[in-house]
Amino acid sequence: VQWLRRLGRTARLAIVEFGAGTAVPTVRAFSETLAPLGTLIRINPREPEAPEGHLSIPLGALEAIRRLDALLKG
Description:
This protein has 74 residues and is of the alpha/beta class. Helix content is 38%, strand content 20%. It has helices spanning 2-7, 26-34, 61-73, and strands at 13-18, 38-43, 55-57. It has a three-stranded parallel sheet with strand order 1-2-3, with helices on one face. Helix 2 (26-34) links the parallel strand 1 and strand 2. The radius of gyration is 13 Å and the shape is globular. The termini are far apart. The relative contact order is 0.17.
């Protein structure tokens, strides 16, 4: 969490979460605590639901990365 303090109050984060399900919610909970500082992008084929105002991608990690890469390359 020390790195977060060094960013300062004006930093905007992109929190990208791959495959964190509800069975062990620690990663999801941590991502959601950071979400007000930026945008949470939750990638999960079965449980992609993200808080309102954030992104849910119902794909596996590899497929999501491939599609995002293709979009970025135009």
